[in-house]
Amino acid sequence: MSEHGYSKGRLDLPFVGISTFGKRPYVADWSALDADVAVLGAPFDGGTQWRAGARFGPRGVREASTLFSFGHAGAYDHEDDATYLPGDVRIVDMGDADIVHTDTKKSHANIETGVRAALAAGALPVVIGGDHSVNIPCINAFDGHDPFHILQIDAHLDFVDERHGVRFGHGNPMRRAAEKPYVSGLTQVGIRNVSSTAKEGYEDARQMGSDILSVRQARQLGSLAVTERLPQGAKIYLTIDIDAFCPSIAPGTGTPSHGGFLYYEVLEILQHVAQRHEIIGIDLVEVAPDYDPSGSTSILAAQLLLNTLGYIFHAKSNP
User: Fold this and answer.
1) Cα distance between residue 67 and residue 15, in whole Å
2) What is the three-class DSSP state of 78?
3) Domains within the chain, CATH numbers bracketed
4) For residue 160, how many other CB atoms are within 10 A of its CB?
5) Which of 58, 41, 38, 235 is nearest to 118 (CA)?
6) Is the distance from CB of 104 to CB of 47 less than 8 angstroms?
7) Given a cut of 80, is residue 81 above it in pLDDT?
8) Is the CB of residue 134 less than 8 Å from the CB of residue 283?
9) pLDDT tier at 51 (50, 70, 90 boundaries)?
10) Which of the 8 DSSP states describes residue 178?
11) Which one of 45, 62, 71, 310 is CB 3.0 to 4.6 Å from 131, fit for a cystine?
12) Which has the closest alpha carbon to 258: 269, 243, 268?
């Protein structure tokens, strides 16, 4: 081709092209998945109790993730002297689960179908919400799998059993998870201030095996000590609510809560977890881009997911 063509391949800058997660390949046929990581959007926010808008979270996080798409051959970290997410880590984007407006049951069922497809393909499911109720179908999809422990990074306990007949909203997911026979327990980190869960919910959570830490308690312990509270040898499912972070760096969420984590506080916990445990699934929820004109919340979410995936697969290749 001419000098104006693509004889040396496309530069494919972050702002060019379609915004799949990290500009990785899009696979529309879920029966044909062949990847190490399968990213699924779950744009459902019908479970919110205040500000909606997380339905645009998957779109926002995908767009933000293109910022980190320069090198598909991996990203070198000079602090760790390691290259994360080299080319042999295969990441694909499944697109979004179909959402049926006002119908939680059907929408959740469609999300569960997507997670089951990722698991059937042997891929690590990474689900981008959506409100935190999307965790419910994610956990449902692991029915029949080996037991695992849930690490929740969140401002809110989300352990409401039932309120006015609502059992599958974004205040309920950790209660629904704790009821599963294949969920061995929960570690809930970042819980603070006024929560959606009453005192009885905290008592129930502890009786059902939860270890609950506030931001201040986690800071006092340090990232390694927080990680060491997880059951040794347990497989870990990771659920991250973006409101775990301080709204000064993550304002784009429906239920902001001041006093939250800063970036490295959470990232270091996740790095320690990846080094010590097998992480079997991830969801990141409650990003609502319309409340953040700067886009920093979506960038934070994308950066956190990509770095966590880097830690997971680096640990697998360097046992």
Assistant:
1) 8
2) coil
3) 32-160+174-317 (3.40.800.10)
4) 25
5) 38
6) yes
7) yes
8) yes
9) very high
10) H
11) 45
12) 243
115 with 281: CB under 8 angstroms? yes
160 neighbors 172 (Cβ within 8 angstroms): yes
Amino acid sitting at position 215: V
CB 236 within 8 A of CB 279: yes
- Give residue 243's Cα distance to chain centre: 12
Burial group, residue 212, by CB count within 10 angstroms (0-12, 13-18, 19+): middle
Residue with token string 């080319």: 87
206 token code pair: 């502890």
Strands 148-153 vs 124-129: parallel, antiparallel or unpaired: unpaired
> Tokens for 309?
């995936």
Q: Quote the CA–CA distance of 308 and 267 in Å, as a whole number.
A: 7
Per-residue pLDDT reduced to its tens digit, 248-275: 999 999 999 999 999 999 999 999 999 9
DSSP 64-77: HHGGG-S-TT-EEE
Q: Which two three-digit tokens encode residue 65?
A: 């993730």
Q: Which pTM does this prediction carry?
A: 0.95
Quote the tokens at residue 27.
Answer: 């696979």
